[in-house]
Design brief:
This protein is an alpha+beta fold. The chain has helices at 14-26, 69-85, 119-134, 155-174, 185-197, 206-212, 216-220, and strands spanning 39-40, 46-49, 52-59, 90-100, 140-151, 180-182, 225-227, 232-234, 237-239. The strands form two sheets. Strands 1, 2, 3, 4, 5 and 6 form a six-stranded antiparallel β-sheet that branches. The longest helix is centred in the middle third of the chain and has 20 residues, at 155-174. The two termini are 36 Å apart.
Length: 258
């Protein structure tokens, strides 16, 4: 499906026609068919199938590791309440993206020596920062996203159902001081771009999509995508999907937490 196709009476300018040609030349025509959704609107609403829609929300940080046992229980119980409050036609998916923090990022918070008699303190502070960074739990930056899906006959109904569900979830997280913010279309495309192309930026916007005559999938699809028996190739990277086949009766909270 092509988003925002222009009326036949509305012509593109010469500059827009040239840009559309350049965009078509740089897009991949085959791998986008493996991205299983219909369209993604600028406001962030995605039509997955003919009667399934979704929105994605960014979850804020919570100091779970340093929290007290009582605070951890509050987080766990809140998550349980949220999961149990979903309607039978709603699904929820939690996406965690762990990115290693480069050691060079510490340069911005280290103190330089200035030979004013306090360099010993600066050395001590720099060493302390290095020790903290060396701990595994502090060497990764975690991005957390919650995607909610709903069954609906049309997009207006889907927006209403998803917004009502999101308002309930937001109120529950806000009681714990956890932010819960809706993502727009370009923000969701950026997540796809990071995962599929390993690029942390967008070199297009929805106006480019409109004048190109292409779909959002064309702008995020990798150049090469091949599915093997136990793994997949995405350009020059390899990936594998693992899943939990059977959950135990007891699950330690170290497996995953918000």
């Amino acid at each position: 499906m092509t988003l925002f196709s222009r009326k036949k009476t509305q012509k593109l300018s010469k500059e827009e026609r040239e840009r559309a040609k350049r965009l078509r030349r740089t897009m991949t025509a085959s791998t986008q068919n493996s991205l299983n959704y219909q369209w993604l609107m600028p406001d962030g609403l995605m039509m997955v199938t003919n009667d399934t829609y979704s929105k994605t929300y960014r979850l804020g940080d919570t100091s779970y590791i340093t929290a007290t046992d009582e605070e951890r229980i509050d987080v766990i119980e809140t998550n349980a309440d949220i999961f149990n409050s979903l309607d039978i036609d709603n699904d929820m998916q939690l996406l965690l993206i762990n990115r290693r923090v480069e050691a060079t990022s510490l340069d911005s918070i280290r103190y330089d020596k200035v030979s004013d008699g306090y360099d010993d303190y600066r050395d001590e502070y720099n060493a302390m920062i290095g020790d903290i960074f060396s701990q595994e739990q502090n060497t990764f930056q975690v991005e957390k996203y919650l995607t909610i899906t709903a069954q609906a006959d049309h997009d207006h109904q889907a927006r209403r159902v998803l917004d009502d569900t999101a308002n309930i979830i937001e109120s529950q997280y806000s009681s714990l001081g956890i932010s819960f913010s809706e993502l727009g279309g370009e923000e969701r495309l950026l997540i796809f771009r990071k995962l599929l192309r390993r690029e942390g930026f967008l070199d297009f916007n929805y106006k480019d999509i409109a004048i190109s005559g292409l779909s959002t999938r064309d702008f995020i699809a990798p150049s090469y995508l091949k599915f093997e028996k136990d793994h997949m190739r995405i350009d020059d990277s390899y990936a594998r999907v693992l899943y939990v086949k059977q959950y135990p009766t007891f699950l330690n909270d170290k497996l995953g937490h918000l």
